[in-house]
Amino acid sequence: MNLIEVKNLKKYFPIRKTPFSKPIYVKAVNDVTLDIPKGSIFAVVGESGSGKTTLGRTILKLLDPTSGRILFSGQDITDLKPKEMRAIRRKMQIVPQDPYNSLHPRKLVKDIVGEGLKIHFKMRSSEIYERVREILGYVGLREEHMFRYPHEFSGGQRQRIAIARALVLRPEFIVLDEPTSALDVSVQARVLKLLKDLKREFSLTYLFITHDLAVVDYMADRCAVMYLGKVVEIGSKDDIFYRTSHPYTRLLMNAVPSVDPRNKKDKVIPKGEIPNPVNPPSGCPFHPRCPYAKGICKEKEPDIVEVNEGHWVKCHFPL
Amino acid sequence: MKGDLLTVKNLRVIFHTYRGIIKALNGVNIWINKRERLGLVGETGCGKSVTSLSIMRLIEEPGEIVDGEIIFDGRDLLKLPESEMMKIRGKEISMIFQEPISALNPVFKVGYQIAEAIAHAENVSMKDAYGKVKDALEMVGLDWKRTMNLYPHELSGGMAQRVMIAMALVTKPKLLIADEPTSALDVTIQAQILKLLDELIKEMGSAVMMITHDMGVAAEFCDKIAVMYAGNVVEYAKTEEIFENPLHPYTRGLLKAVPRIGRSEELEGVPGVVPDLVDPPPGCRFHPRCGDRLDVCSSKKPELVEVEEGHFVACHLFHGGVRT
Amino acid sequence: MEYQESERISRWRPLIEDLKHTMYLWRKNKLAMIGTVIILGFIIVAIFAPVLAPYDPYQQNLHNRLAPPSREHLLGTDQFGRDVLSRIIWGTRIELKIIFLVTVISTAIGTIIGLISGYFGGAVDEILMRITDMFLAFPSLVLAMAFAAALGPSLTNAIIAISVITWTVYARLVRAETMKIKSTLYIEAIRALGAGTFRILFLHILPMTISPILVQMTLRMGTIILTAAGLGFLGLGAQPPTPEWGAMVSDGRLYMMNAWWISTFSGLAIALVVLGFNLLGDGIRDILDPRLRR
Question: What's the confidence (pLDDT) of residue A155?
């Protein structure tokens, strides 16, 4: 059963040179279709300009979709008005990327984490206090931490506060936007483990946005690889890593510096810069940098090909 | 513990704040030989950036270098007058930084800034320097005609880093300090930049001190690795040694925490938090978080000693060169 | 549990730490200290005016008019024989009242307009900003004079007039801050939590704008006094016999040649207090500067 279904989602940002001229569009999310099974960790991987961050926010309706449909638990939420969205919001939360900026700097932790409860439920403050204390315990923080300000905490602790804030409403779905990118490696390991434990404990579904393939390998069940607003490959984790089909995915994996120093193989180094999403290349957006590109790649956008069950790729010449 | 190019001995640096004195570097020992690549690895607050800034004598108030020696090519940099230091900075020792676009001057075109670097490095006039900008940009793989006239904010991250590399290497420095040069870049761009650095460094014959928190980058790029924690170097060895035979409990903990593609075991973090350097733990600064600590660890600071050939550890578990 | 943290802290610690840090920065900043001393002195004089003033400021003594500074009248007497020193001391209360009321009114108006303008953008922003521009287009003193003259010369009307020209500063400031803050991650997170507009504006964005508002308020106070003095000088503010400093400077004009002390000491009082507020405002701005703090 799919918790989230995204169909042909597009999110374009208009840029105008003057308030009156015709706008050009940054095609941040450019026709994305994917399904997130309930109870899974679904990773979205990409570099700058891939649109992964915009995708996460659009699914949560923090940005209004330009076109396409978003379904939550079978319900079409694309056109819901803000009032109607409020009830849904309780069930879908976000843990943002930068722990140093995602908590209100002038509020105590207990207010930051408890605010969600104040917005959605009519609870007595003693009840709110109890729930906040409880949820902080789950993420490994103590009662006295409730009376501190965010700047008193380290990055890892702040991220746990952000996780607590998302969890206190007992959501079903959480978008984790690069939750550990700003953290040290040893802290990252603990936060990732915590996220796995919490998922089990609270029966959560995650959309995990990251640029780090090693983290994908550790966390994800299914994975989508994005490039310039399009999903170029999507499949189970094993499909992506062991039955790699798209040249970009292969390039991405090769580019990750290997911690095994004996692995200094001759790698195919990707050439060129990542193009600007305002002016994506014609045909397949990856063709200027693709080592296997042929004539057709420049002219025609590739169709979606099913490589094996549950594994799709958008390429004229899948590997 | 001496390098024929750079030897840092017992470096101590403090910072004055309203809460007290931050003992940022607590007797750091580092050494690099000519043409060698050293990776300085550690997490936030370990002092790796402070170490590199100290070598460049760029520590300012409220920071203060209070003890130690930095012997570069036979001279103690800490004893040099500023005028002498200026001849070394940007010429014999160059530095590249993490956020390349921010590290460039936003109001001058790229061509001008490179010319400035060349003029300083080769002691020529700006006019002559301008003639060499083309070579510099081609060296780093950029379209010189176009790039010369761009402003830093018009560059992509990768392009800006190439410009920085051009500016740093145009002087053929003996030592290049690279402070997290690819941390802010996308993975595919990072691969390009590291390859570029690799080729150019080989050509120039420079030594490199690569500061990074990314163990993969250190593994691929560096010959030797120094692991830092809370103001000390806790382990120093050849790259393969560090990964195959890590000795210090912190190094082992760090390696267990790094996710790797194809790795099946659970990740393990290092328990506890990084210590407050205003009131650091006595003895070994890692001891409160160490699963293997002995009694002596809380009272006596372990020195960096050679335990196996070329492999140095600062840990009481390896007292006197013998594994206890 | 594996994740337990190992520190124990009390509830008040973060607030005390913050205060300690603020005090440290304050003490380090000499100019801020000077400003603080001046303003504290100003406030103390205002509070204890009845005790400090040697004479009744309204008490006329026509036998002793235009007397130079002496032991009985430290700053001399004015054209009605009233003690200049006492009038200056009691004048602090007038000034304080003006500053307080103008600040409260203009900050309230300006902040609300700024919040709405900055948060909603679009047409609302355009309209509100054009209105603000209209007010800014006039030289402030001229506009204040026009209002004061139209409403009739009195202290209350002077306060209204000065408020009318001051709110624009806060509107622009708060609008700029709001636009910056509304795109931060923590505001986005609170939107994801389902917070409504009112909650976001007043419980989340407003608290973040307090620092810059505080700095502006302090810096503005000097200008407010000067404007009030200007209006008073022109007869558009407090009416005689109220001991408002600007009016006193004006009164003394006729006697500059032979009784210089009337205008001079009143003028010096104005200058000193304005200086104090400016130093204090600069100091507060430095102290609240986030880069210096962390």
Answer: 85
Which residue in chain C is spatially nearest to B289 when comparing CA positions? C6
Inspect the interface and report whether the beta carbons of A142 and C4 lie closer than 8 Å.
yes
Please check whether residues B211 and B70 belong to one and the same domain.
yes
Check B158 against A273: CB less than 8 A apart: yes
Query: Which tens digit of pLDDT belongs to each residue from C175-223?
Result: 999 999 988 889 988 888 888 888 899 989 998 888 888 888 888 888 8
User: B186 and B135, same structural domain?
Assistant: no
The CATH number covering residue B180 comes to 3.40.50.300
Q: What is the DSSP letter of B280?
A: P
Strand partners, A225: A45, A233
Mean pLDDT of chain B: 89
pTM: 0.82
Q: Which residues contact C91 (CB under 8 A, 6 or more apart)?
A: C57, C243, C244, C245, C248, C266, C269
Kindly list the residues from chain A whose CB atom is less than 8 angstroms away from the CB atom of residue B254: 185-186
Establish if C226 touches chain A: CB-CB under 8 angstroms. Answer: no
Could you tell me the CATH number of the domain that includes residue C133?
1.10.3720.10
The CATH classification number of A2-91+169-258+266-314 equals: 3.40.50.300
Phi, psi of B123 (to 5 degrees): 55, 45
Q: For chain B, how many structural domains are there in total?
A: 2
Contact status, residue B297 vs residue B316, Cβ threshold 8 Å: yes
Domain residues for the domain of C179 are: 18-55+75-293
| Residues 25-84, chain B, touching C (beta carbon < 8 A) | none
- B84 to chain A, closest Cα gap in Å: 37
